[in-house]
Design a protein that fits this description.
It is built from nine helices and eight strands.
Length: 288
């Protein structure tokens, strides 16, 4: 170990630092040029990321070659510091491994809407150690943005459930539940809900089924139908009607708002349809 520390010359340390500074200075110049020349936001972001990755690999390669000459072989470096780094930096190593998994397997990419563990949001950047999300939900309902930026360690892809809302098939199923009284004409209420969902402006594109077939080629996905439906259920306080339909992941609140307004307007015009809701009765025990 004494020989190991003696081999750390000041020249190699300064040379390594200078290499990092020069390479990242050149990378920053290239990024400035990219920001000026590339107008497309997505392509500009990808070009910046590619520049950073290339600069990091070049710097790592030069530094590694420099220290190999000092130590004589890679095996000596690994045996001297490998065990210590593994114990001290196991979380960092897991984050790097997660980053490699994200780049190779592509469970999500920039622009996707995902849920990773207890955090949900839109992916705005993927770094070596963190995935950066623009948060949705939190204290805000119906998948709306909170405005907060969340840094999720890449190691979470190994330990937490990962949900991707927009990969390949950018649609999800949504449900609107309401209840009418037992005395109401629940069949008419069901027909009115189907009439609302069947309006032409809410019909999905024919390409939707094509996208689903493409997804079925990659994953075991099978839907009998994409047609909206209204399901009937009996609950304690009335007849529950559940409108189930498919919508774009980012438009869930918008479509739900449109459907709810139209359904309310339809029901208000009918005298034999009344909403039901849980009721409570409080009895006061009389004095003896």
């Amino acid at each position: 170990m004494k020989e190991f520390f003696q081999s750390l010359t000041a020249f190699n340390i300064y040379y390594s630092l200078a290499t990092v500074l020069v390479i990242y200075f050149l990378a920053s110049i290239i990024i400035r040029i990219i920001n000026r020349q590339v107008k497309d936001i997505k392509k500009r972001h990808q070009a910046r990321k590619a520049t950073y990755y290339a600069a990091s690999l070049i710097a790592l390669g030069i530094i590694l070659m420099t220290w190999i000459r000092v130590f004589g072989s890679i095996a000596i470096i690994i045996s001297a510091i490998g065990a210590g780094l593994t114990l001290a930096l196991h979380q960092a190593i897991l984050c790097i491994a997660g980053w490699l998994l994200i780049l190779i397997r592509r469970p999500y990419k920039t622009g996707d809407r995902i849920e990773l563990g207890e955090v949900a949001g839109d992916v705005i950047d993927i770094h070596l150690f963190y995935t950066i999300l623009l948060e949705i939900r939190g204290w805000v309902g119906s998948d709306q943005s909170t405005g907060r930026v969340v840094y999720c360690p890449n190691s979470k892809v190994f330990t937490e459930p990962l949900y991707n809302y927009t990969q390949g098939f950018e649609h999800i199923w949504n449900e609107i539940k309401l209840a009418v009284t037992f005395e109401s004409n629940w069949q008419k209420a069901k027909d009115l809900m189907l009439e609302v969902i069947g309006r032409e402006e809410f019909s999905f594109s024919p390409s939707l089924e094509k996208k689903l077939r493409e997804m079925a080629k990659k994953h075991m996905i099978y839907y009998r139908t994409l047609t909206p439906a209204v399901w009937v259920n009996i609950v304690d306080f009335g007849v529950e009607l559940t409108l189930r339909y498919i919508t774009e992941a980012r438009n869930r609140r918008k479509t739900q708002d449109q459907f709810c307004q139209l359904i309310l307007q339809k029901f208000q015009q009918e005298k034999d349809i009344d909403f039901a809701y849980p009721t409570y009765r409080i009895y006061r025990r009389g004095e003896e």
